[in-house]
Design brief:
By secondary structure, the protein is of the alpha/beta class. The chain is built from twelve helices and ten strands.
Length: 384
């Protein structure tokens, strides 16, 4: 595959990330669908599988599988034995060899099915997936965020310092972000990441212009130093995202936002969708299943709702992929069976018929009604 022998030193020596992308054959002009009906050149595609569709991730040029691996492992206690009950989903990973075995097996199945991108959002995810990718990094692009030491927390600390009359010095956020990725890479045993998508406040407009400028400086440094091939952010703030990608198109190459099966696009120029398409921005969608509110069961293999939930998951993924501006939804997958089910959705007819649309619409209405209080913000993403 194209990325096998590319190191951080190669990125720096190549002069610019764009030049490296061109050297790897990541051309900006083609897409490959499941089964490769157009007989396109698939050599530049990492971990290519003819039963997977691949989409160009905006101006990065990376060809990304239409279904990717989200970092979260919610409900993993339903498929992994000997895990302490009552813990939060992140804490479930602590000290459990069964957990890491599960992550290794799920990543292996992703590779088997042609999935070629993992999105790791928090430190525990970065560490778990770095272990799972050991010896096979050439099969997967890795998206990275060590959110505990990124904008969501740094911005709050910056604002608190200003309120006390003891403001942080200029460049403080930039340096903290540099320190954060240096630390995270060292802890994970990584030389570089393919995408550093910094986690901002969900309402990223809460960040001041100064904070954003310091973030931009850190992203520029990461690319020049070879720590990250491409850069972007995670945000839930549509108007602010639109302003950022228009003002800083070279730094915000990829955006991670909510995107469910209920999301619809606004086709005029006022919408985020139009701006993402115009500016050629890569777009990963989190919460495709509305934080599992779409499902009736609990994700256990023996759930009486397993078959229905599998069908709903495929319907949701097919509906999301009808938007050509989306690079990929990134569901958290907790079992090899869930990987197989997600990959199957890519091979099924893309457009939903009337009966399928009615079934999915009814399920999403139930999901909206079942959303817990801390996920009500998903309703703000019904239109993009």
């Amino acid at each position: 595959m194209a990325d096998v022998n590319v190191t951080r030193r190669d990125f720096i020596r190549g002069g610019t990330v764009a030049a490296v992308g061109a050297a790897l054959g990541l051309t900006p002009t083609y897409t490959v669908q499941a089964g490769n009906p157009d007989k396109a050149d698939t050599k530049p595609i990492l971990n290519y599988n003819p039963q997977m569709e691949y989409r160009r991730c905006g101006k990065t040029g990376m060809m990304i599988s239409a279904i990717c691996m989200g970092g979260h492992w919610k409900r993993i206690d339903k498929v992994v034995g000997r895990m302490e009950k009552g813990k939060g989903w992140i804490a479930l990973s602590e000290g459990s060899s069964e957990f890491q075995k599960n992550r290794n097996e799920v990543v292996s199945r992703c590779i088997d099915r042609g999935i070629n991108y993992i999105d790791a959002c928090v430190s525990a995810e970065v560490l778990a997936y770095s272990k799972a990718l050991k010896g096979r990094r050439d099969k997967m692009y890795l998206g990275y965020s060590w959110y505990e030491a990124e904008m969501r927390n740094l911005g709050s600390e910056w604002a608190s310092a200003a309120k006390t009359g003891k403001p942080k010095p200029a460049g403080w956020i930039t340096q903290k972000l540099k320190d954060s990725i240096d630390y995270g890479l060292k802890q994970a045993g990584l030389e570089y990441v393919d995408l550093w998508r910094v986690t901002c406040h969900e309402g990223s407009s809460a960040h001041s212009d100064h904070e954003i400028e310091e973030l931009v400086a850190a992203l520029e440094w990461a690319k020049k130093s070879g720590k990250a091939r491409f850069t972007g952010i995670s945000s839930h703030d549509r108007p602010h995202i639109k302003r950022l990608i228009e003002k800083f198109p070279q730094q915000f190459e990829v955006i991670c936002t909510p995107y469910t099966a209920k999301t619809k696009v606004v086709t005029d120029e006022s919408g985020l969708w139009a701006a993402m398409k115009k500016l050629d921005v890569g777009w990963f969608g989190i919460k495709p299943f509305a934080s599992n509110s779409l499902f009736k069961g609990d994700s256990a293999p023996d759930s009486p709702h397993a078959e229905e939930d599998n069908r709903l998951a495929r319907l949701a993924l097919r509906a999301i992929l009808c938007n050509p501006a989306i690079t990929a939804p990134i569901p958290g997958l907790i079992s090899q069976q869930q990987v197989d089910n997600a990959a199957q959705a890519v091979m099924e007819r893309r457009e939903l018929d009337h009966a399928e649309r009615a079934e999915l619409d009814g399920a999403m209405e139930r999901a909206w009604a079942a959303l817990p209080s801390h996920y009500q913000w998903l309703k703000d993403w019904e239109y993009v």
